[in-house]
Amino acid sequence: MARLHRSKGSYYARFHDKTKSPARKTVPLRTRDEAAARAALRRLEVHYAEGRFDPWAPPEAPPTRLSEAVAVFFEAKAHRAPATLRLYHTVLDGLVAHVGDPLLRDVRPRDVLAFLGARDLNDTGRDAYFTRLKAFFRWCRRQGLADDVVTDRVDVPRGPQVFPHWLTRDEFGRLVGAIRSAAGEANEGEVAWLIPFVTVAVYTGLRLGELVGLRWADVDLESRRLVVRNRAAARTKSRRDRSVPLAGPAVRAFESVGRGDREALVFVGAGGGRVNKEYASKAFLRYRRAAGLAEEIHFHSLRHTCASWLVQGGVSLVRVKEVLGHASIQTVMRYAHLAPSTALDEVERALG
């Protein structure tokens, strides 16, 4: 019925009907993303078969129902991390169930507010839901599915800003000390691997899943840089590779492990196999308690710690975003508040 056509980076739907004049008609899909283009092509083919869309008629986007837009969105975003998709499904499927299935253009600000109000959400949960709704409706506008962004006209009360929990250098030292003490009391191989593991985590900001999938081919100690690879067996959250510079403590942690074959995993458990993420997380919590650290601290707090130390050291937020692999600068902005003394120094230098 139609096929996908790409020209100068943009995608088009090319329809063919020898009874029409001209026999071929090309319709812009308004995207440079192939997955989104294929999803839009399938949607147009359905509308064409139902008589709701005629490529040869004067250009007018066929009306799209909310459920259709949600389906196209998930087809285009299928590469995203499973946890991210689960949250989007919770929010968007919940919205469809709450408001029914109106045309996308008929969704009103009051519908969004009513949906959020019907959920038993605390401030953080409401902010998380609204962030996903904004991302969805803005995506719809970029894809030409909607003329405006309904969430831009929604005034949602913002909850108090919650700062991530992170460790001071003294607290991190206590954590390492607790692990080292345990290694001396038990079979050292059972826990000794955790010291370089958490050290690399805190000095690179790698996520737990990225650490367990790290291979020696990705680590260049001479140039002091590693590459987080987006592999089928270990997907990155952004689904992209990224390069991370290695500070001295991270280099020494890698050296303490002992280099293996290029395709060998950097970190292996006591049995020589791949480190289990759940086991690593539980081991971290065990030594967190032994070190007397706050209950709010968990393994991901090491990533927050890396960001806060970078900001405290004067590293720009843009550079922090690159190192940690965040998709948006807005995510990194919360780390700026983790270093109030740095902000005070800057204000004092400028105004004091």
TrEMBL record:
InterPro entries: CB, DNA_brk_join_enz, Integrase-like_cat_sf, Integrase_catalytic, Integrase_recombinase_N, Tyrosine_recombinase_XerCD
Family: Belongs to the 'phage' integrase family.
Provenance organism: Rubrivirga marina
Residues in Core-binding (CB) domain copies: 64-141
UniProt cross-references to CDD domains, sorted A to Z: INT_Rci_Hp1_C (cd00796)
Keyword Magnesium: no
Transmembrane segments: none
GO biological process: DNA integration; DNA recombination
One MF term in the entry's GO annotations: DNA binding
The name this protein goes by in its record: Tyr recombinase domain-containing protein
Keyword Transferase tagged: no
Keywords of the record: DNA integration, DNA recombination, DNA-binding
